[in-house]
Design goal:
single chain, alpha/beta, four-stranded antiparallel beta sheet, 23 helices
Amino acid sequence: MAKKKNNKTTAEGKFRFDLDTCSKRKDLSGAVSLFESAVSQNFRLSNYHYNALLYLCSVSIDEPSSKTLALDYGFRIYDHMVSSGVAPNEATITAVARLAAAKNDGDLAFEVVRTMGKYELSPRLRTYGPALFWFCSNLEGEKAWAVEEHMVSVGLNPEEPELAALLKVSAEMGRGDKVYAYLHKLRAAVRSVSESTAEIIEGWFCGEAASEVGGVDCSLGGIEDVALRNGGGWHGQGWMGKGKWVVCRATVDSSGQCSSCGEKLATVDIDRAETETFAQSVAALAMEREVRSKFREFQDWLDKHADCEAIVDGANIGLYQQNFAEGGFSVPQQLDAVVKELYNRSQQKWPLVILHNKRFRKLSENVSNRNLLQQWLTQGVLYTTPNGSNDDWYWLYAAVKLKCLLVTNDEMRDHIFELLGSSFFLKWKERHQVRYTFVKGNVKLQMPPSYSLFIQESVKGTWHVPVSSESNEESLRTWLCITRPSSHELNDKPSANEETQEMDREMDRRQQCDFKLSSCKTEGLGNGSCENDTTSMTGKRKERSPSPSRYA
């Protein structure tokens, strides 16, 4: 079929062609002339025409020579659109909000966003941006916080640019409660912060307002319990300690120890509520795609065999590097080697291997394989998934539900696609996935890192903030180390000797950072190394009843 050509012979075709030409050339004057001509001739403009005109106005406000014309005609075009009964869409509202902010009218920028409800439109982050950033840059914190509250109410979560702006206005207004809240929202939203965000954080902790916040009346034991329930790495109970803060730039070694303050960073896991939500979402998605009764049968079986510390993706390991002419599913050389390695690491606790029934039956044709697989079934080490199923759902659900390690090199990109609504997926994956390789026939397990790459708030009230880096070498990553010499005083009054030692450590830390509290300079980096350290699994295990064979 021949491609339909744009009909420039009709009035509508010619108008659209000329308007598109103006847009490509960023010719605002030409577009305004077209608009005036269309109005004088009572030419009916469509949503496309209005949006093209408004977009051109919104991108012309940054040019001093065209800003006045863009603002004048931008609002005239929008008013004409509304009076003509042409319904706006999200792009329309975003363009008008930008024009309002450029006019120094943050209230109008926010008001136009709030009109989207009557048009049954769903806003995006970019729709809120003009009002939010205008209020933040003009120190109208209350209004900026109201924009964020409205954003969250419609199901949108601010990302680093929005959170950094909210953090900055909160800091500049001396609102320690808001700074604390936005630091935690930032912790939940990003793995590491940009350099510009790091400077905002430094600016807050170096200021006088920061030295005045604190004094949470809570025992250390209570704080530790809360941090544990949260998954580790933060407690969220408020500022601890009192007095001035010390801000240094440091590195973290492979064991998770900060080169500046010596504190060991935590491994951050998703909390109990998130774990249950995650497990439920995986189960719900699995039962949409699997035979519901078969997956429920697996859930019931798993409830009775819940005492294991590792789930093994059998197919992923058995087929590892087997893509050559004589290659095939390697049970004794690879899968059995991984199972034994996990058994030895975990004080003789068997892992759970998940394997598809079709592959199980094929492997059982080999006598040596069959003997080993039958032994695993008898010991409850193996679960075979039913015909027609996707075994990925089974091993993922088991690992989440049992809160244990998952041995696979699968990047789980398909699962991430399905679970986009689960913001904690990457956090869970970092904490629970064990990767592997074979070196000269010997299995090498790469255990989860000994610390997590997230903003961390310790039970002592100190903060560690990872800064984004172009390097993949974690030993080179810069962290903000934020301590308070008196943060321990809420929980423990040190002895005279301990107090002297603490003062000595504090003096060393300040010298190490080349840091002056009064001027808040942050030159100097601590030294550290980062190698992938391996951690062992611990715990005891009860004997498990035999696993059912799915091929029966």
